[in-house]
Amino acid sequence: MGSRIAIAAAGICHRYGRRWALIDVGFELPEGAATMVAGRNGSGKSTLLRALATAVRADRGTIHVLGVDARAERDRARESMALLDHRTHLYEPFTALENLRLAARFLGQPDTRAALLTRLDEVGLADRADDPVRGFSAGMRKRLALARVLLKQAEVVLLDEPYGDLDPPGFVLVDHMLERLRAQGVTVLMATHLLRRGQALCSRALVLESGRLIFSGPAASMPQPARTDAGFAEGA
Amino acid sequence: MSGLVIALRKDLLLQWRGRLQIVAVFAFGAAALLLFSFAVGPDSLALRQHAAGFLWLALLLASTLSLAESFEHELEDRAIEGLLLLPAGPRALYYGKAIANWTQLALLGVALVPVMVVLYDAGTTRLLPLLGIILLGTAGLSAPGTLYAAMTAQARARQALLPLLLFPLVVPVLLAAVKATSLVILGDPMGQLRPWTTLLGLFCVVHVSLCGLLFGRVVEDG
Within 10 A of A208 (CB to CB), how many other CB atoms are there? Predict the structure, then answer.
């Protein structure tokens, strides 16, 4: 794990209409760390990840990604980040291969069929490469979105509920992906409701409640109520 | 490969995948021309005099359908946001989309000319100037149309909002295009075609430049 700060957030506030989704959220994450973000539905996890990824602009506060001011130099900050969002960022009429090829071209990565099939094979979609996304299940879309995230080879990866919509083999796929990213020294921030799984894979944790950060520290020391709350099932 | 070329290829492929929609838009334009001809009546001289105006009105009305459609796939899974986060430049995305929309509108304009000739008895042998005017006029429609389609794509009343915002803005383009097309069809004894075409070209340049600058503000949050 490096000593450099990968993400430094201070005083982030964001609101939708009159409701504040994030209130004065601040933390620092060291480079190479895997961090989970926990909290109930509507606690601000997705908004936090979207603000860090510059998909939404925080109303207040500062965000630095690998030393780059994400507000002032949005494109530079984006170059080093990849976001797996609730919405998969895919074009419905395009095939899986075409979606990946489009991203590869913008990223300046190899866009040959062989190279892209390798990427699709990593997420178990090689045999559906030429099928339009329109006919994909939610889990298959999530797998394709994961392939797109991996394609970018970003230094900071933001994952919003990566296990959502996936089947048990998909859970294992995400586990392996996270282990691989950690081994590569990639900084990972993952929002999840699967707390035991998150704690096993992440060294640090952030806990949000009603838009406020109520815990930031080692994952093993997460507050008990959040860890044992009924309804936080582990899925597979 | 530049961002613009990648974006243009993406948009042309999207249009190709939705080619049935293009046929529907053409049918809408042809139906509009037919209905306008009923409004004028059987007076062949009046029909011929109004042919250019009705051609551009039909194109304008049909353009709102195709322009609004062009952002549907960008937003249904926030695909355009995914491209911006890569990061792809908003200007490249705009010009790719605007050129693809322009191509579609220009083809639609060309396809509606024979319909106009048949319904309005408005034939002309000056096909090259007519093609030039259609290219310029449709560029003048697609440049602001693409921007406003992006602005209204997430609005609830987008079907009404897009024409409401777009029509006042394209009035100068429409006037110049109608006048120039009329001169091609009815004859140009005073040599007015060049100034009207130049005016049309100027509006296009202004729209294309300004809209490209503003697109980032429209599609980015804040």
Answer: 25
β-bridge pairing A68-69 and A60-65: antiparallel
Residue pair A75/B55 in contact by the 8 Å Cβ criterion? no
What is the torsional sign of CA A150, A151, A154, A160?
Answer: negative
Write down how long chain B is. 222
Q: For residue B184, report the phi and psi dihedrals to the nearest 5 degrees.
A: -70, -40
Residues on chain A touching B81 (C-beta within 8 angstroms): 55, 85, 87, 89
pTM of structure: 0.91
The C-alpha R_g of chain B, in whole angstroms, comes to 18
Cβ distance of B86 and A107 shorter than 8 Å: yes
Least confident of A30-34, A43-47, A140-144, B42-46: B42-46
**Residue pLDDT, tens place only, A83-139:** 999 999 999 999 999 999 999 999 999 999 999 999 999 999 999 999 999 999 999
Cα gap A91→B73, rounded to integer Å: 6
Interface test with A, best of B85, B93, B219 (most A CBs within 10 A): B85
Cis before residue B87, ω within 30 degrees of 0?
A: yes
What residues contact A179, with CB distance under 8 A and at least 6 apart? A201
Which tokens in the block code for residue A8?
């430094």
**Chain segment A188-221, per-residue pLDDT in tens:** 999 999 999 999 999 999 999 999 999 999 999 9
B219, two tokens: 């599609």
Residue of A52 and B189 predicted with greater confidence? A52
Give, to the nearest 10 degrees, the angle between helix B90-120 and helix B193-219. Answer: 140
DSSP string covering B104-154: HHHHHHHHHHHHHHHHH----S-HHHHHHHHHHHHHHHHHHHHHHHHHHTT
Residue of A12, A22, A68, A91 best to disrupt the B interface, most CBs of B under 10 A: A91
Structure tokens at B220: 């980015």
Q: If you compute the radius of gyration of chain A from its CA atoms, what whole number of angstroms results?
A: 17
Task: Please report which residue ranges of A9-93 form alpha helices under DSSP H.
Answer: 45-52, 74-79
CA distance to partner chain A, nearest, from residue B171 (Å)? 34
CB B38 within 8 A of CB B117: no
Whole-angstrom Cα distance, residue A117 to residue A132?
A: 15
